[in-house]
Write a structure and sequence with these properties.
This protein is mostly helical. It is about 70% helix and about 0% strand. The protein has six domains: about 120 residues, Alpha-Beta Plaits (2-Layer Sandwich); about 110 residues; about 210 residues, no CATH class; about 140 residues; about 170 residues, no CATH class; about 150 residues, no CATH class. The longest helix has about 150 residues. It is flat, with a radius of gyration of 62 Å. The two termini are about 100 Å apart.
C-alpha cells in the first residue's frame, strides 16, 4: 500500500528533475544519472533495474512500470521554433492552421466555457523568454484540470439494478446485496454504526434533557460539566459516547435511550400532577358537601328550637306583620308600575304617530316617484323610437339613392354603347353611298355606250321593225300587268288601312282597359300605400323615361339596319340591271322611239302614286302624332320615292311604313305589358305588405289575448279582496258585540265595584288604561283598513281599465307594465291583509283577556302578549305520505304562486324537519328527508317538459337548500341571521350529507330546466334572428342565382324578432314569479343568449344567401334589440352580452369594407372572438345582393388568411350549441321568520299544527 505523502514527495522531486530538458547541453544519460543520484535508495517508489543502465522503474498503484530514457529529452523539448509555429498557424490552409492553434477552445455543449482563476497571486514573468517543453505543458494542463476539479463539488448517484434481465416488478435480493456490497454501501453503514452518528451540542443537550437532571446537578454553573455528570450517571458504558469541545457524540441507539428516559420522567410528572389535581378536586367537593350538611343541620336545629319556643300569640303577630308588609310593598310596587306604564304608553303613542307619519310620507313620495318615472320612461321610449325611425329612414334613403345612381350609371353606359353603334352604322352608310356613286358613274358610262349603240340602232332599224310589233304586244301585256299591280296596290293599301284602324282601336281599347284597371287598383290600394306611391311614381317616371330612350335607340338601330339592308338590296339590283343592259343593247335602239312615251306615262303614274302616298302618310301622321314615325316616313322613304319612279319602290315604301307602324305598335304593346308587369309586381308587393301587416295585427291580437288572460287572472285574484273585506266587516261586528258585552258587564258590575271600591280602584284604572291601548290600535287599524280599501278600489279601477278593449300595438307595453304592477300590488295587498289578520287576532285575544278580567272579583293580571310560535310544524309519522302527496306531488304552481311567499313549500318542509330534529328522532328525520327528495325527483320526472313546474321546483329546491345551510348552526352561515333566527337552528342532527344530495338534485333540475328552455326557443331563433326583416326595405332584394327557400310553415305564422323577445320575457317573468334567485336567473339568461348566438352563427355559416352587407345590418339591429331587453330587465351584469360577441363580430365583418390591406388588418384586430376558419368561411360565403356591393376577391381572402396564421385557435367551424356553463348556487339567507309563516288552506295541510 503506497502512502500518499511519499507519492507527493516523489512527484515534487521528479518535477524538478524533469526540468533538466530545458538545459541547452543536457542528454538522456545525464538526466538518467541525475535520477539515479536523487532517488535510488532514497525513495521507495523509484528503483534501478539490475540488467539495464538505460531505464528506471517507478512503483505505481497497480504495479511497477519500466521507463526507457532514449529520446526522452528530445521528445520533451519539442524543439520547433516559435516563428515557424506562428507561420504555420497563420496558414490559409485551414487544416494546417488548426494543428498549430495555441490553446484551442473546445466547443462546450452548454454554449459557454468555464474560466477558472487561481486563488494565488499570479507572478508577473520577466522579459526573458523560455521555451516550453512537453512536460511543462502537461503539468500546466494537469494543474488546470486539478483546479477545475477542486472548484467543483462532486455528487455520486449509485444505481442499483433490481434484476439482471431488467424486468418490471422483479426484485432479486441476492443480486442487490452483491451490488450494495460492491459499491461499499454496506461497509459505509457498518462504519457509520461503529462510529458516533448522533451528536448534540452542550447547550442543546442541557435544554433537551434538563428534566433528567437532579437539583444538585442543576445547581452547577458549568453546563458542560453538568452534561458530563448526567451522562456518567445515565449511561454506565462510557464507550457509548464521547465528549468533544463543543459537542457530545453518541453511538447508534443512545439518543433513543435518552428519549425513553425523558418520556418516562415526563410521564411520572404527569401522574403526580394528575394525582394532586384530583385530590384537590375531591377535597373541594368534600368541603362543599360538608358545609351543606352543616347548614342543613343548623337550619333544622334552629327550626326545631323555634317551634318549641314560640306560642300562638307570637305566631299571630308574626303573620299580621307579614300581611302588613305585603300590602305596603304591593302599594309601592303598584304606584311605581303605574307611573312607568303611563310614561311608556305616552312614548309609544308619540313614537307610533311619528312612524305612521313617516310611512305616509314615504308612500306619498313613492307614488309621486312612480308618476315621474312613468312620464320619464314614456319620454325616453318616445325618444328611442324617434331615433330608431330616423336611423331607418336615413338608411332607406341612402340605399335608394345609391340604387338610383347605380341604375343611372348603367343607363349612361348603355346609351354610350348605342351611340357608338349608331356612329358605326353611319360610317357603314357612308360607305354604301360611295358605292352608289360609283354605280351611278358606271351608269353614265353605260349611257355613253348606249348613245353609240343608238347610232348603230339606226342602221338596224329596218331589221327591228318586226321585233317592234312583238314589243308592242309585250307593252300591252305590261300595261295589263300594270293595271293589275295598281289594283293590287289599292287593295293592299285598303287592307293595310283597315288593319291599322283595327289595331289602333284595339290598342286604344287595351290602353283604356289598362287605365281603368290601374285606376281601380290605385283606388283600392290608395289608402294603404299613400306614402309609398309617391316614391314609386317618381321611380317609375324615371324608369319609364329611361326605358323610352332605350327603346327609341333600339328602334333607330333596327331602322338603320333595315335601311342598310335595303341599300344593299338596291345595290345588288342595280348590279343585276347593269349585267342585263348588255343583253338588251340591241333592243334599246328599237325601244328608243317608245322611250319618251313610256317615260311620260311612268311620270304620270309616279305623280299619282306620290299623291296617294302623301295622302296615306298624312292620314297616318294625323292619326298618330309621333315625331319618330313622321321623320322616318317623310324624310327617308319619301326621298326614295322622289329619286326613283319605279312602282315597286312605292310598294316597298308602303311595306316599310307598315313595318314601322307595326314596330311602333309592338313597342307600345311591350311598354304597356311592362307597365302591367310593374303594376302586378306592385300589387304583389302590396299584398305581401298587407300580409305582413295582418301578421303583425295577429301578433298584437295574441299579445292582447295574453294580456286579457292575465287581466282575467288578476281580476279573479282581485275577487278575493271582497272576501277579505267581508272578513274585516265580520271582525268589526264581533268587536262591536264585544264592546256592547263589555259595556253591559261593566254596568252589572257597578254594584260590586261600589262595595269593593277600596280594593278595585287600581284595577279600574288599569282597565281604563288597557281600554285606551285597545282603542289606539283600533283607530290605527281603521285607518289602515281605509287605506287598504282605497288600494282595492285603485286595483279594481285598474282592472276595469284593463278589461276595456285593448288598443293595438302602441299600448301593448303599457298593458304589460300595468299587469306586472298589478301583480306586485296584489302581493303587497295580500301581505298587508295577512298582517291585518294577525293584528285582528291579537286584538281578539286582548278582548278575550279583558272580558276575563272583568269577570274576576280579585286582583287579576292581564296577559296582553300573544302566544309565541316556535317556527315548527307538528305532524304524525303516518301523515308523512299525505304531506309529501299534498305539498309536492299534487301542488300546481299556476294560480298558487301569486298568493304566497317565494319558496313557501321549502319553508314548510324545513319547519317539519325542525320538528323531527326537536324530537331527536333520527328515523323520522331520515324518512322525511328521503321522502321529500324522492318526491321532488318524481315531480321533475313526470313533468320533465313543463317549464313552469321545473322552474317552481328548482326555486323551492334552492330555497330548501338555503334553509338547511342557514339554520345548520355553522358559523359561516349564521353570521347572516338575526339573533332570533339563530335560535331556530338545528340542535341534534347534521344534515350536510343531505345538502350535497339536494345540490345534486338541483343541478339535475337546472339541466332539465335549461333543456326545456332551449327546446322552446331554438325553433324561432333562425327565423327571428336571420330570416325576419326587422328593418323593412334593407334586404328585400335577393341575390341573383338563388331560389327562394321552401318552408313548411305558412308565411302568416312565421316567427319574428318580437317572438324571440316575447319568449325570453315569458321565461324571465316565470322565473321571477316562482321566486328564483336573481343570480340563477342571470345564469339561465346567459345560457339562453349563448344558444341564440351559437345557433344564429352556425346557420349563417351554412347559408350562403345570408352572407351579405344588408343581412349584417339586420343581425346588428336584432342584437341591439336583445341588448335593449337585457337593459330593460336589469341583466347587464349577467355576462349574457359577452356570449353574443362572436355573432356581433360576424355582423360587423359582413358590413365592413373588404378591399385594401388596411381593411384586412382591421378585420384581424377586431374579430378576436371568431376563429380563423370562421372568418375565412364568412369571407368566402359573402354574396352581394346587387351590383352596388362587390364580391370579396381571392387576393383579399389570402391577405386575411396570412394575418390569421399567427393565431393559435381551434380549427373548428361550428359552435357547440350543447355546451353548458357551470352552474353556481349562491347562498341567499331567507328574510322570512319561521314563526310568521302561515299555511294557505289551498295546500290542504290541515293535519299540520304550528308549535
Amino acid at each position: 500500500m503506497l502512502l500518499f505523502p511519499e507519492r507527493l514527495d516523489f512527484g515534487k522531486k521528479y518535477k524538478n528533475t524533469a526540468n533538466f530538458a530545458e538545459l541547452p547541453h543536457g542528454t538522456d544519460e545525464n538526466w538518467l544519472q541525475k535520477l539515479y543520484n536523487n532517488f535510488v535508495n532514497k525513495n521507495s517508489l523509484f528503483e534501478k533495474p539490475r540488467m539495464s543502465t538505460a531505464s528506471f522503474l517507478i512503483q505505481h498503484f497497480a504495479d511497477k512500470v519500466e521507463y526507457r530514457c532514449e529520446g526522452f529529452l528530445e521528445k520533451n523539448r519539442d524543439t520547433v521554433y516559435d516563428t515557424l509555429v506562428e507561420i504555420l498557424g497563420a496558414s490559409k490552409f485551414h487544416l494546417c492552421a488548426k494543428f498549430f492553434q495555441e490553446n484551442p477552445v473546445p466547443p462546450s455543449p452548454f454554449g459557454s466555457a468555464i474560466t477558472m482563476k487561481s486563488a494565488k497571486q499570479v507572478i508577473k514573468p520577466n522579459n526573458k523568454q523560455f521555451r516550453t517543453t512537453v512536460g511543462s505543458k502537461f503539468r500546466s494542463s494537469l494543474s488546470l484540470l486539478m483546479e477545475t476539479l477542486n472548484a467543483t463539488t462532486p455528487h455520486y448517484v449509485r444505481c442499483i439494478k433490481p434484476n439482471d434481465e431488467k424486468l418490471p416488478f422483479e426484485f432479486d435480493s441476492k443480486r442487490i446485496a452483491q451490488q450494495l456490497r460492491a459499491c461499499g454501501v454496506l461497509e459505509t453503514i457498518r462504519i457509520s454504526a461503529q462510529s458516533y452518528p448522533s451528536r448534540w451540542t452542550y447547550i442543546e443537550f442541557y435544554s433537551r434533557y434538563g428534566i433528567l437532571m437532579t437539583k444538585q446537578e442543576l445547581s452547577f454553573s458549568d453546563k458542560k460539566e453538568v452534561c458530563k455528570v448526567v451522562l456518567h450517571r445515565l449511561i454506565q458504558d462510557s464507550n457509548q459516547y464521547q465528549f468533544g469541545k463543543t459537542k457530545i457524540f453518541f453511538r447508534a441507539g443512545q439518543v433513543a435511550y435518552l428519549e425513553k428516559l425523558r418520556l418516562d420522567k415526563l410521564r411520572q410528572g404527569c401522574v403526580v400532577i394528575q394525582k394532586h389535581i384530583r385530590g384537590w378536586l375531591q377535597r373541594k367537593k368534600f368541603l362543599r358537601e360538608r358545609r351543606a350538611a352543616l347548614l342543613i343541620q343548623r337550619y333544622f336545629r334552629g327550626q326545631h328550637t323555634v317551634r318549641r319556643a314560640l306560642t300562638a300569640a307570637a305566631l299571630k303577630e308574626a303573620w299580621a306583620a307579614i300581611v302588613l308588609q305585603k300590602h305596603c310593598r304591593g302599594y309601592l310596587v303598584r304606584s311605581l308600575y303605574q307611573l312607568i306604564r303611563v310614561a311608556t304608553i305616552t312614548i309609544q303613542a308619540y313614537t307610533r304617530g311619528l312612524l305612521a307619519r313617516r310611512r305616509y310620507r314615504k308612500v306619498l313620495e313613492e307614488h309621486k316617484a312612480v308618476i315621474l318615472q312613468k312620464y320619464a320612461r314614456a319620454w325616453l321610449a318616445r325618444r328611442r323610437f324617434q331615433n330608431i325611425r330616423r336611423f331607418v329612414l336615413n338608411i332607406q334613403l341612402t340605399y335608394r339613392v345609391q340604387r338610383l345612381q347605380k341604375k343611372l350609371e348603367d343607363q349612361n353606359k348603355e346609351n354610350h354603347g348605342l351611340v357608338e353603334k349608331l356612329t358605326s352604322l353611319a360610317a357603314v352608310r357612308a360607305g354604301d353611298v360611295e358605292k352608289i356613286q360609283k354605280l351611278e358613274s358606271e351608269l353614265d358610262r353605260a349611257a355613253a355606250h348606249r348613245h353609240n349603240y343608238e347610232e348603230k340602232g339606226k342602221r338596224y332599224k329596218a331589221a327591228m321593225e318586226e321585233k317592234l310589233a312583238k314589243l308592242q304586244k309585250h307593252n300591252s301585256e305590261l300595261e295589263v300587268q300594270k293595271e293589275q299591280v295598281q289594283r293590287k296596290l289599292q287593295e293592299q293599301t285598303e287592307e293595310l288601312r283597315g288593319k291599322m284602324d283595327d289595331l289602333t282601336k284595339q290598342l286604344f281599347d287595351d290602353v283604356r282597359k289598362e287605365q281603368q284597371q290601374r285606376i281601380v287598383l290605385e283606388k283600392s290600394f290608395e289608402l294603404k300605400t299613400q306614402d309609398y306611391e309617391k316614391q314609386i311614381c317618381s321611380l317609375e317616371g324615371e324608369m319609364r323615361a329611361l326605358r323610352d330612350e332605350k327603346e327609341q335607340l333600339q328602334h333607330r338601330l333596327e331602322e338603320e339596319r333595315a335601311t342598310s339592308e335595303a341599300l344593299k338590296g338596291e345595290v345588288a339590283q342595280l348590279s343585276r340591271q347593269a349585267k342585263t343592259t348588255s343583253e338588251f343593247e340591241k333592243e334599246i335602239e328599237l325601244l328608243q322611239t317608245q322611250k319618251v312615251d313610256m317615260e311620260k306615262h311612268v311620270q304620270s303614274q309616279k305623280r299619282e302614286m306620290r299623291e296617294k302616298m302623301s295622302e296615306i302618310t298624312k292620314q297616318l301622321l294625323e292619326s298618330y302624332d309621333i315625331a319618330d314615325v313622321r321623320s322616318r316616313l317623310s324624310v327617308e322613304d319619301l326621298e326614295h320615292l322622289n329619286e326613283d319612279g319605279e312602282l315597286w319602290f312605292a310598294y316597298e315604301g308602303l311595306k316599310k311604313a307598315t313595318r314601322v307602324l307595326e314596330s311602333h305598335f309592338q313597342s307600345q304593346k311591350d311598354c304597356y305589358e311592362k307597365e302591367i308587369e310593374a303594376l302586378n309586381f306592385k300589387v304583389l308587393h302590396l299584398s305581401q305588405e298587407i300580409n305582413h301587416l295582418q301578421k303583425l295585427f295577429r301578433e298584437e291580437n295574441d299579445i292582447n289575448e295574453s294580456i286579457r288572460h292575465e287581466v282575467t287572472r288578476l281580476t279573479s285574484e282581485n275577487m278575493m279582496i271582497p272576501d277579505f273585506k267581508q272578513q274585516i266587516s265580520e271582525l268589526e261586528k264581533q268587536k262591536q258585540d264585544l264592546e256592547i258585552r263589555l259595556h253591559e258587564q261593566t254596568e252589572n258590575m257597578k254594584g260590586k265595584l261600589e262595595e269593593l271600591s277600596n280594593q278595585l280602584n287600581h284595577n279600574r284604572e288599569e282597565e281604563e288604561m288597557q281600554r285606551k291601548t285597545t282603542e289606539a290600535p283600533r283607530e290605527i287599524h281603521t285607518k289602515e283598513r281605509e287605506k287598504l280599501s282605497g288600494n282595492v278600489e285603485e286595483t279594481q279601477a285598474a282592472s276595469g281599465h284593463l278589461q276595456r278593449p285593448s288598443e293595438p300595438a302602441s299600448e301593448v307595453t303599457r298593458f304589460q307594465q300595468e299587469a306586472s304592477r298589478l301583480t306586485v300590488e296584489n302581493r303587497d295587498l295580500e301581505e298587508e291583509l295577512d298582517m291585518k289578520d294577525r293584528v285582528i287576532k291579537k286584538l281578539q285575544d286582548q278582548v278575550k283577556t279583558l272580558t276575563k278580567t272583568i269577570g274576576k272579583s280579585d286582583d287579576v293580571r292581564l296577559s296582553v302578549g300573544t302566544k309565541e310560535h316556535l317556527g315548527m310544524l307538528e305532524y304524525k309519522r303516518e301523515d308523512e305520505a299525505k304531506l309529501i302527496q299534498n305539498l309536492i306531488l299534487d301542488l300546481k304552481p299556476r294560480g298558487v304562486v301569486v298568493n304566497m311567499i317565494p319558496g313557501l313549500p321549502a319553508h314548510i318542509l324545513f319547519m317539519c324537519v325542525r320538528y323531527a330534529d326537536s324530537l331527536n328522532d333520527a328515523n323520522m328525520l331520515k324518512s322525511l328527508m328521503n321522502s321529500a327528495i324522492n318526491g321532488i325527483k318524481q315531480v321533475v320526472k313526470e313533468h320533465f317538459e313543463d317549464f313552469e313546474m321545473l322552474s317552481f321546483w328548482f326555486s323551492n329546491t334552492c330555497h330548501f337548500l338555503n334553509c338547511l345551510k342557514q339554520y345548520s348552526g355553522e358559523e359561516e352561515f349564521m353570521k347572516h341571521n338575526s339573533p332570533h333566527q339563530n335560535k331556530n337552528c338545528l340542535n341534534n342532527f347534521d344534515l350536510s350529507e343531505y345538502r350535497q344530495i339536494l345540490s345534486d338534485v338541483a343541478i339535475r333540475i337546472y339541466h332539465q330546466f335549461i333543456i326545456v328552455m332551449e327546446n322552446n326557443i331554438q325553433p324561432i331563433i333562425v327565423p327571428g334572428m336571420l330570416e325576419y326583416e326587422s328593418l323593412q326595405g334593407i334586404s328585400g332584394l335577393k341575390p341573383t342565382g338563388f331560389r327562394k327557400r321552401s318552408s313548411s310553415r305558412d308565411d302568416t305564422d312565421a316567427y319574428t324578432m318580437s317572438s324571440v323577445l316575447q319568449q325570453l320575457s315569458y321565461f324571465y317573468s316565470t322565473m321571477c314569479q316562482n321566486g328564483l334567485d336573481p343570480e340563477l336567473v342571470r345564469q339561465a339568461v346567459k345560457q339562453l343568449f349563448f344558444l341564440i348566438g351559437a345557433v344564429t352563427l352556425n346557420s349563417l355559416f351554412l347559408r350562403k344567401d345570408m352572407c351579405s352587407c344588408r343581412k349584417g345590418m339586420q343581425i346588428r339591429c336584432n342584437i341591439s334589440y336583445l341588448e335593449e331587453w337585457l337593459k330593460d330587465k336589469n341583466l347587464q351584469n349577467s355576462l349574457a352580452k359577452e356570449t353574443l360577441e362572436p355573432l356581433s363580430q360576424a355582423a360587423w365583418l359582413l358590413q365592413v369594407k373588404k378591399i385594401t390591406e388596411s381593411d384586412a388588418k382591421e378585420i384581424y384586430e377586431r374579430c378576436t372572438s371568431l376563429s380563423a376558419v370562421q372568418i375565412i368561411k364568412i369571407l368566402n360565403s359573402y354574396t352581394p345582393i346587387d351590383d352596388f356591393e362587390k364580391r370579396v376577391t381571392p387576393s383579399f381572402v389570402r391577405k386575411v388568411q396570412a394575418l390569421l396564421n399567427s393565431r393559435e385557435d381551434s380549427g373548428q367551424l361550428m359552435l357547440d350549441t350543447s355546451y353548458l356553463y357551470q352552474v353556481v348556487f349562491p347562498f341567499t339567507p331567507s328574510p322570512h321568520a319561521l314563526e310568521m309563516i302561515e299555511i294557505p288552506s289551498s295546500f290542504k295541510l290541515g293535519f299540520l299544527n304550528r308549535l
